Amino acid sequence: MRLSRYFLPVLKETPAEAQIASHRLMLRAGMIKQQQAGIYSWLPMGFKVLRRIEQIVHEEQARAGHLAIQMPTLQSADLWRESGRYDGYGEEMLRITDRQGRDMLYSPTAEEMVTDIFRAHVSSYKQLPLTLYQIQWKFRDEIRPRFGVMRGREFLMKDGYNFDLSKEDALHAYNRHLVSYLRTYERMGLQAIPMRADSGPIGGDYTHEFLVLAETGESEVFYDSEITDLTFGDREIDYDDVAQCQSVLEEFTSRYARTDETHDEAAFNEVPEERRRVARGIEVGQIFYFGTQYSEALGASVQTPDGSKVPVHMGSHGIGVSRLVGALIEANHDEKGIIWPEGVTPFHVGIVNLKQGDVSCDSACEAIYRAFLDHGLDPLYDDREERAGAKFATMDLIGLPWRITVGPRGIAANKVELTCRRTGESEEMPAEEAVEKIV
Ligand code: ATP
Ligand code: MG
Ligand code: MG
Ligand code: MG
User: Which of 106, 139, 283, 325 to mutate to test the pocket of ligand 1 (most atoms within 8 A of CB)?
Assistant: First the structure.
């Protein structure tokens, strides 16, 4: 992409309404525009990052054997009356009436609808296990939308639902989700720690939230510092292997790690004092096993091998796709701007032409630009007639991992400058070598 043809409405002033770095930087870098409280338009660069996150989520869900579907945002209130949640959900639910006077709602989550799909088409244990998921906009009329996309009212969520014959099978699905989420966040360059969460009135241990440590996080978290040394890495996983998924779960959840909702001071005190940490975190996902609550209410049952009919065991699993954009920036920025991890960066590299219109600079930049395209990478070429300082400031703000700077003095010596955004280190080298280092 050539910056002269792109739509990157960078703000010079720091927006007064933004209280935290990610919100400020997303506005300043022209990634989003607020339309109403908690409701945003995604501009080209923001949308690109959102799409990259979605892509990683889709790839990891496919790897785990989960199937993508798409359900409507607008749902019938009757479906929610069947589950008994229509009246109980409260003011977070946006309720709408159509011209026939029918009650509808903008889906805040989709257990009811996915169960409706299941009951219409599945009637035998032979069709199990089944996990369906979607990435779709949700609406929750949050009382205090804030921090930009972090707590929006309209937000993008991956929500997945497993259907299994037994509790045991459903717990394997739970473990499979935990493993796939660990991989998903790590590919984005994020450490998200699974923490025991509050399972509400249903009880049991079968819910974990994934938290990214950040001072601006809304949850207070308590954990054993050993947990931050764990990485998933690129180990091979067989998602059908029950024991293997279980052992990953044990590895990542055996140490103390809880949010304020489930914090237990006595248990925490058993962690050696030098390893006890109290910090703040951003919830970027949650997994849940809830049994037969919805399948019973909505009549989703299957025939078992012995011919009897049983309600299916279910769980639901969410990733905050749009919140992740904010969380990624909270975890990756400095005073100059964003520092994108390679896994989600909107462009792989920025090319800065210090003397636009100079024949040798222009042709060197064009050649570098082409070389990246030929390698299947996505470069952003700043080909505007702008001062060097302004070009550098823009690149630092939008935070691409690498910058190649091309100027007349360097070109005369057959050199360009390669700069790493994260370390700030620069090195001079021939253009071909700089390209080689990035591809
Ligand atoms: P929170 O505790 O932050 O209100 P939640 O527990 O209500 O979140 P879930 O129902 O678990 O949310 O939804 C799955 C994921 O969707 C959350 O882990 C979070 O990452 C994301 N999410 C929830 N509410 C919002 C929101 N208002 N704006 C952006 N993302 C959200
Ligand atoms: Mg909530
Ligand atoms: Mg929560
Ligand atoms: Mg949650």
Answer: 283
